[in-house]
Design a protein that fits this description.
By secondary structure, this protein is an alpha+beta fold. The chain has helices at residues 5-19, 63-74, 106-124, and strands at residues 47-56, 80-91, 94-104. The protein has a domain at 42-128. The chain has three helices and three strands. It has a three-stranded antiparallel sheet with strand order 1-3-2.
Length: 137
């Protein structure tokens, strides 16, 4: 079977596309869990928020951007998102992520639990203290 130059270049292009792959970072997180947890503080002090990150064919959309937008919509004093849900949204030619949850102010949590209570809560929930982190070489 004889191929012309165009057919041969199309076969090479299709083979390259089929066997190529890519990866991208989806999200950076400080605290994350997929299990139900009793946080032992009043969630009614938080704000229900949502944020989206959309792009043409999903290009440029990221979960981190959607999470950041959700926290920013609550206000600058909110820095923790609990009871969060991440959804993948697909529309015709546009796709991305939608994040909903309850934004919490960690300083209010600290004030409510007290300094010692907050430290115990962090230890009980395996939240590390960066000042005590040991880096091994």
């Amino acid at each position: 079977m004889k191929y012309n130059k165009f057919s041969l270049s199309m076969i090479i292009l299709m083979t390259t596309l089929i066997f190529s792959s890519c990866s991208q970072r989806l999200v950076d997180f400080t605290v994350i869990s997929s299990k139900n947890h009793s946080l032992k503080f009043d969630l009614s002090q938080g704000k229900q928020v949502q944020g989206t990150s959309m792009g043409f064919l999903g290009l440029g959309a990221s979960i981190k951007d959607a999470m950041d937008k959700a926290l920013q919509s609550a206000g600058t004093e909110y820095d923790i998102l609990v009871n969060g849900v991440v959804r993948d949204n697909d529309y015709f030619l546009v796709s991305g992520y939608k994040v909903t949850g309850t934004a919490i102010n960690s300083s209010k949590l600290k004030a409510m639990l007290g300094e010692r209570g907050f430290e115990e809560w962090c230890k009980a929930n395996n939240i590390f203290d960066p000042s005590e982190t040991i880096v091994m070489k």
